[in-house]
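FAQ
Q: What does a multi-component entry look like?
A: The components come first, one per line:
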Amino acid sequence: DIQMTQSPSTLSASIGDRVTITCRASQNINNWLAWYQQQPGKAPKLLIYKASSLETGVPSRFSGSGSGTDFTLTINSLQPDDFATYYCQQYSTYPWTFGQGAKVEIK
Amino acid sequence: QVELVESGGGVVQPGRSLRLSCATSGFAFRSYSMHWVRQAPGKGLQWVTVISPDGTNKFYADSVKGRFTISRDNSKNTLYLQTDSLRLEDTAMYYCARDSPFRGGLFDYWGQGTLVTVSS
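Then the predicted structure of the entire assembly, as tokens:
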């Protein structure tokens, strides 16, 4: 199975900050990488697919980059709704696997 | 709008069974593969199983193979997960998710989840 490793696991930030989360795959997944946001007590929500494509309706302050094994999620100008846990997921190869999550907390 | 609503969770003893359901609306259910993804309390996401649009192809995570069975009723727009021989480690929120039409294994819509608690 492809292992997905996110860092950091937790980060503290303030409203208006720029935040970066990284995700590393244990083997080449090309750009078959998605990012999901999960707010407390809610289902995950698709933010970004194919490493850098923004899902319809997702604010443009979210962006993704990377290819191969190394990927990044960036949130520009953090807003109150953005305090959540973010998961990367590879959909290159079955079985599909997720990173362990990165929690963005209020500083 | 796309809507997925899970039900059927509850508290069950180890070794027993539960049948989860996911009622869908707002899209052509019979045209999409569907998944179950679970999340143990305080933990991350784990893909569990997928079923093809016509129900003929099914794949399972190793951790549930031989114990869980995914199925669907396209006339009722409903997805099911039969969970047998439940173990303590199966305790989790179970989400149904729609497979993206653009690439298999991308989950574009999720339900709100149904909680399964396995406890003696």
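Q: Is there any commentary attached?
A: Sometimes. For this entry: Chain A has a mean pLDDT of 96.
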